[in-house]
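Title: Comparing notes on inverse folding

I've been comparing how different people in this forum approach sequence design from structure. To keep things fair, I'm posting one structure and asking everyone to reply with a full sequence. Here's the target:
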């Protein structure tokens, strides 16, 4: 029986790593893409059959090369989880406008490139899943998000366009909005020190929901999926 393959971008020590562990626990071989070579090496040792590819997703030529390497060395992914994110949180008048383009390449254009690399073979096979992780910046613009929110909104609309085009061909595309502060070391802020545990969403629980969406029956496919802790105001 052919190995199940899951490709994940943005494999840090939070959601990305948790998703990698969850799919590996179900027998998937995991292709992990991120910039931090040392962190990827640790996960590769932990997860049997996994392979890591350390590079900056903004390098679209390298992204294409890595997608093809994954096909050659592991096989066609059954599931692709686009979790990588690049963000700028500053007033738009104070930041180089090129930041918008950099964010767009990582958040949105890379999704298009991966879909172009994998979707044709998924269509031929008749199955495949593409899941994109987002946040409420995909749904609204607020101060200091002017160079970030447009890229997430475009990401969601691109994912929706892919879902409508690929769904009838057997490919499930879904967009997961995580409306929460995620409990990770890299995203920790001093203002969170006094917050109760209920304030956060936890990477392992987010990963569980992503895994669930990836395995929905064809008669009940989701596109927009929103996750938030029960205390979150929305």
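Reply #1:
Here's my take.
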């Amino acid at each position: 029986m052919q190995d199940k393959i899951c490709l994940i971008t943005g494999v840090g020590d939070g959601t990305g790593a948790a998703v990698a562990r969850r799919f590996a626990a179900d027998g998937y071989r995991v292709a992990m893409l991120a910039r931090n070579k040392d962190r990827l090496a640790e996960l590769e040792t932990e997860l049997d059959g996994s392979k890591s590819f350390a590079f900056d997703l903004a390098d679209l030529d390298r992204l294409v090369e890595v997608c093809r390497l994954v096909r050659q060395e592991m096989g066609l992914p059954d599931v692709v989880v686009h979790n990588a994110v690049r963000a700028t949180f500053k007033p738009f008048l104070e930041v180089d406008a090129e930041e918008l383009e950099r964010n767009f390449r990582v958040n949105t254009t890379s999704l298009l490139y991966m879909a172009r690399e994998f979707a044709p073979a998924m269509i031929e096979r008749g199955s495949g899943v593409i899941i994109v992780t987002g946040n409420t910046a995909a749904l609204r613009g607020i101060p200091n998000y002017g160079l970030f929110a447009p890229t997430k909104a475009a990401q969601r609309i691109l994912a929706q366009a892919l879902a409508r085009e690929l769904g009838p061909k057997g490919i499930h595309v879904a967009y997961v909005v995580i409306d929460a502060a995620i409990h990770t070391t890299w995203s920790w802020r001093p203002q969170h020190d006094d917050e109760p545990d209920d304030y956060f969403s936890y990477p392992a629980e987010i990963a569980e929901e992503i895994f669930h969406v990836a395995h929905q029956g064809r008669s009940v496919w989701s596109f927009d999926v929103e996750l938030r802790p029960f205390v979150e105001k929305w």
